[in-house]
Amino acid sequence: MKVIVTGCNGLVGSALVRQCIANDNITHVFALTRKPLDEAVAKSPKATVILHDDFSSLPPDLLRQLAGAEGCLWAIGGRATQFPDVETYRRVQVDYTLAAAKAFQETLVPQLPEGKQFRFLFCSGKFAEWDQSKSLHFMADTRHVKGQVERELCEFADADTAKRFVVYCGRPSGILPGDAGLPAKITGKLYGAIDADRLAKAFVRVVLEGYKERIIENDTLLSL
After folding, report:
1. Strand duo 69-74 + 118-123: pairing
2. Lowest mean pLDDT across 163-172, 176-185, 202-211
3. Could you tell me the CATH number of the domain that includes residue 70?
4. 57-97 pLDDT per residue, tens
């Protein structure tokens, strides 16, 4: 299976690239990124690094480079506090994600063999909230925006009458780097934090095999 990965310089995205390269069932990974990746990825025969600046648009020449992809692991985003303002966060989290989903559904899905589905897995977050009018007491902007992405992705997939564009939304709680110290690991247990590589392995399994539920909560990700 050929898979697209985004957010490749981030904690989750870099782990996804590593796990895709390590997994024998992934034949190739297209690492779609703004910045160059480390030499180990760039020289891997299983990886194609594609530099792209503006994720609000995926032009035809870029989509041609992604031909044959059957899935996407979307890890662009994060928390609202990591962005200068909510408008920027919403543009990156909502607009970029939906633009890519539309481009992949229109261009890559028709290229697949008859009956093949394209699986799009969005890295969301625990407590993402679909109801944009609901008052939230913590991480409101992050939860509302991630919830908006989830809802709109699911609605987009539902509108595909051929059911060939399939959406999954993974909802990790805290995410720990592989070199997290003991204090971080102990604290992480209090809120169900998951190691980035363990999360990446779960995401790769979902993109390869699919899953019975569209929204995949943190406890499930820990068990995959």
Report:
1. parallel
2. 176-185
3. 3.40.50.720
4. 999 999 999 999 999 999 999 999 999 999 999 999 999 99
User: What residues make up the domain containing 71?
Assistant: 2-223
- What pLDDT is attached to residue 191? 66
Compute, in degrees rounded to 10, the torsion defined by CA atoms 127, 131, 136, 138.
Answer: 30
Whole-structure pTM value: 0.94
Residue with token string 């590593």: 18
79: tokens are 């928390």
Task: Indicate the length of the chain as a whole number.
Answer: 224
Return the percent helix, strand and coil in the chain, to nearest 5. Answer: 45, 20, 35
CA angle 90/91/97 to nearest 5° reads 95
Q: How many structural domains is the chain composed of?
A: 1
